[in-house]
Specification:
Layout lengths: L3 H6 L2 H9 L22 E7 L6 H6 L7 H6 L6 E8 L3 H11 L11 E6 L7 H20 L5 E6 L7 H7 L11 E3 L23 E5 L4 H12 L3 E6 L4 H11 L2 E4 L7 H8 L4 E6 L14 H24 L3 E10 L2 H5 L5 H25 L2 E7 L5 H4 L3 H9 L9 H12 L10 E4 L8
Parallel strand pairs: 1-2, 2-3, 3-4, 4-5, 6-7, 6-9, 7-8, 9-10, 10-11, 11-12
The structure holds nicotinamide-adenine-dinucleotide.
Nicotinamide-adenine-dinucleotide binds next to α8 and α14.
Length: about 450
Amino acid sequence: MADRYLSFTGTAPGRFLTRRLGLPQPAPLKRWSERETSLGGPLLQLTAGKSDLDLAPVLARTGIPAGTESGARTGAEKPAAAVLDATGVRDVGTLGEVHAALHPVLRSVAASGRVVVLGAPLDPADHHQSAAQQALEGFTRSLGKEIGRGRTVNLVRLTDADAAESTLRFLLSPKSAYVSGQVIGVGDGLGGGGVTAPGDWERPLAGRTALVTGAARGIGEAVAETLARDGAQVVVLDVPAAEADARRVAERLGGTALALDITAADAGERIMDALPAGLDVLIHNAGITRDRRLVNMPAERWSAVLEVNLASVLRTTDALLAGGALRPGGRIVATASIAGLAGNAGQTNYGASKAGVAGLVRSLAPRALAEHQVTVNAVAPGFIETKMTAAVPLFIREAGRRMNSLAQGGLPVDVAETTAWLAHPASGAVNGQVVRVCGQSLLGA
Ligand code: NAD
């Protein structure tokens, strides 16, 4: 379903009218394409507090040219991104340096540009440091809500810049167009795994096998496409009724199709039969909705959603890990939803299942890493333009589209790019994270 409002506000009369009426002003987002692989430069490196982080070499490796503060202050340069290293902010006084660093240059950051704030893990033995570092979260989320023009603001907590290279490359690229207002921990006490820099950053998944559930259409299809672009051999799993579509997707991507209802008790065994050599990337994307308010909800609608969205995710994950099917360095990415984080009327079943996914990820992540060298993370999409959301009544759909900092819905590819970053061989230090792909939806935290 095309977003006609976004097209309308892109025209001169549309911009004029919607401004006069004080209506939302969505900006067209710059997304990754083969022709436009980067945001365009330059990148501004800023610091608040005394930092020990060795950031410059990692930023240099992104290939984005370095900008100058003076150029940005005078408006002579339009940085595509500003990275503020605030890991050294240990007290409220030093927070002033956050303001001092960003205030003079913010106006010059280009449309669809990025602000990435780097923070340190909270120090439980130092409440002044914790207060100042937690303050960065409120700062990041507030700036995300006011910055506008398709620009995003995210916070990464880290101790080692090298371990965060894949994360910084993702956030500083057009691949993260719909990710804003997020706090991402890299190696943050959940036991960050080994980081393997790929031989080729353009095809990081070359030689790896990725299985995507529910990949015959929608977000799953986009995920399969993006992982194939990154070099993976993809297995497109979907229900037998969608086999023809699954085959079509697999053929286009040079992969294979697997017709299987993921709720089958032996789904794990059947995946292992289909992939005797094992797999590297497991994406739990299949999901359904059966909306009704709880008072009107028959038990079958409740159990169908819990079964597909949560029970089968637990069951197949357990079977594949126990069977040693996920090779060391493996990645599991499950699909949560903002409905599971914020709650949504009519979706007690769906909200419960998706919150369950977040619980599974946070609990399993450290153990899966210690025992199998496999990371476990989740993406939590917000309003994404798919068949699922096209079926939503018009006014609710319009509200869903506009009620986020970017004032528009995301595209399946936005979820796919986020998944590909989590599946990346260099993302071993990203573990137990639930990352929202929601344009900083106003729903939930
Ligand atoms: P979709 O309905 O377009 O596609 C889901 C796919 O999963 C379908 O191909 C379907 O056949 C498959 N599937 C369903 N049950 C299955 C089963 N038992 N075994 C195997 N395959 C099964 O949905 P979508 O919008 O692409 O959503 C994909 C995921 O993202 C879901 O987990 C959904 O809950 C989640 N999500 C979507 C949105 C959104 O705005 N579209 C928002 C938040 C979360």
